[in-house]
């Protein structure tokens, strides 16, 4: 393996390590919030410095690679994508830490289970964790076939977030003593919605690297293509049903 190829692989390995750390942070932020686990929340907050350190090192190493090897074509796309992905991962890490801070500030007091269930907060967490995990697989495999599916999940996140106002408003009107907590929950859900947007940004960078396509202004078209493909598959392979004869 040429030295340049070895350095390029090292860059990918660094991003993979950062990705696993951020994914762990997101998973633990879900657990800390759902269980009101202050100690776990403090662990998340303390590990945020590691996420920041990863982002700074990757940015520096990618700049050095460009200066030393003057990459072109797919190698250049990869390095540029890794820079942007590391920045985006750092932002997701910030949101995970912010959720942990929410738990710490509330002294581990969990919101009412019924409200959390109606708002589908756990589903938001699970969907985001799935998006981040699937994106990691897509980059490792250098395969963009899952891109449409991952981006379509962000629409689910947006829908849950949009519906949350219709759920929170009447609840807070009936329980004005919970207004402060309700507003904090709304802010938390906004953070989760933003994580979904950042996962989309990561997918865009993977598609740019692998397929040399820019999706920034064609996300809805990609989602529609995914839906059209699903409809086509359903028409070709309809759900089997028993004959009534």
Task: Describe this protein's structure.
The protein is an all-alpha fold. It has a single domain, classed as Phosphate transport system protein phou homolog 2, domain 2 (Methane Monooxygenase Hydroxylase, Chain G, domain 1), CATH 1.20.58. The protein is built from eight helices and no strands. Helix 6 runs antiparallel to helix 7 (179-211) and helix 6 packs across helix 8 (219-236). The longest helix has 33 residues, at 3-35. It is elongated and about 65 Å long.
List keywords for this structure.
245 residues; mainly alpha; Methane Monooxygenase Hydroxylase, Chain G, domain 1; 8 helices; 0% strand; elongated; disordered C terminus
Main β sheet profile: none
Percent of sequence in beta strands = under 5%
Number of helices: 8
Shape: elongated
Instruction: Say which CATH homologous superfamily is assigned.
Output: Phosphate transport system protein phou homolog 2, domain 2
Mean pLDDT: 89
The CATH topology is given as: Methane Monooxygenase Hydroxylase, Chain G, domain 1
């Amino acid at each position: 393996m040429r030295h340049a190829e070895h350095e390029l692989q090292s860059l990918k390995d660094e991003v993979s390590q950062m990705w696993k750390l951020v994914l762990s942070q997101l998973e633990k932020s879900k657990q800390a919030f759902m269980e009101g686990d202050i100690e776990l929340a403090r662990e998340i907050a303390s590990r945020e410095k590691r996420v920041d350190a990863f982002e700074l090192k990757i940015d520096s190493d990618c700049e050095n690679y460009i200066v030393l090897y003057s990459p072109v074509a797919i190698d250049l796309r990869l390095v540029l994508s890794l820079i942007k992905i590391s920045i985006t991962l750092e932002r997701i890490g910030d949101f995970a830490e912010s959720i942990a801070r929410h738990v710490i500030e509330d002294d581990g007091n969990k919101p009412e289970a019924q409200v959390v269930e109606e708002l589908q907060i756990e589903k938001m967490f699970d969907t985001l964790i799935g998006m981040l995990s699937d994106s990691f697989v897509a980059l490792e495999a250098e395969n963009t076939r899952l891109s449409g599916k991952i981006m379509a999940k962000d629409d689910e996140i947006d829908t849950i977030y949009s519906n949350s106002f219709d759920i929170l408003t009447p609840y807070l009107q009936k329980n004005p003593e919970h207004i402060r907590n309700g507003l904090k929950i709304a802010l938390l859900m906004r953070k989760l919605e933003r994580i979904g947007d950042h996962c989309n940004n990561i997918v865009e960078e993977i598609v740019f690297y692998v397929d040399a396509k820019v999706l920034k202004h064609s996300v809805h078209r990609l989602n529609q293509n995914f839906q059209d493909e699903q409809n086509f598959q359903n028409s070709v392979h309809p759900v089997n049903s028993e004959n009534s004869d």
